[in-house]
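Final report, Chapter 2: Outcomes

The project's central promise was a pipeline that accepts a single protein chain and returns its three-dimensional structure in a standardized token representation, suitable for archiving and comparison. That pipeline is now operational. To close this chapter, we reproduce one record exactly as it appears in the project archive, with the input sequence first and the structure output second.
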Amino acid sequence: MRIRPLLAVVLALCLAFFTTACSGDSQSVQRGASNVTYDDIHNTGKANDCPTIGDSARGSIPLTAGGSYELREICMHPVQVYAKEEPKNIRQQAEFVEGKILTRYTSSLDSVFGDLTVTEAGLQFQEKGGIDFQPITVLVPGGEEFPFTFSSKSLNATAEGAALTTSTDFEGTYRTPSYRTSNFIDPKGRALTTGVQYAQGLVALGGDDEKLEKDNNKRYIDGVGTMSLSITQVDPETGEFAGVFSAIQPSDSDMGGREVVDIKITGELYGRLEEA
């Protein structure tokens, strides 16, 4: 009978040790990026998120005039998307209406990189490449859908100062590629480089009718957008920075057959500064 209390104590200590060891292993698996598997992020949306840095990263990175730098691993995750709708009343002004992103888990730009130059006027960033465009469709409350190509291609942005700080704001323009490619065939079988010249059943019009001219004669049309990158966090030790971005660009024109509207995109920003 005297053995039972001692045995209970020993079993309790063993159980506590086993639980602590297991919990420690579990935490190490969660923290170690090398242990993350495809199944851990598949269909979770985590691959669309940008990395983050601590709120305490409030430092600055001084830059040398004439030095060679690069901004790398830039990630831009859209959080809110707006479409500019024309007013129903002529006395009202057009305004941006928030919509819902229909594209599933593939809206972020990632691994974007480019050159950072320090000039007498301030900082200049020239985008060079990366996963720098994503096709997105947004649904507005009225039920209309607006496809567009969210992009940072050829972004040429400038900022004041000679350091990367928590108040650095880049502003510039960029190119937005066509949402449709040249061999995309519309429901009527028309395209830029393939398909038919004009919709079947309208042969008598010869494709020259003014109302159908835009739909029949496809064009590859690029657009121009404006973007601002507002840095709010900087880690001097790692060169990482984070913040928010805002962009306004045209929607898809369906290769010239549809009137475009302005699309506004806002979201999270992340990147890293390196010496070239």
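Archive annotation: The mean pLDDT is 83.
This record, like all others produced under the grant, will remain available to the consortium after the project formally closes.
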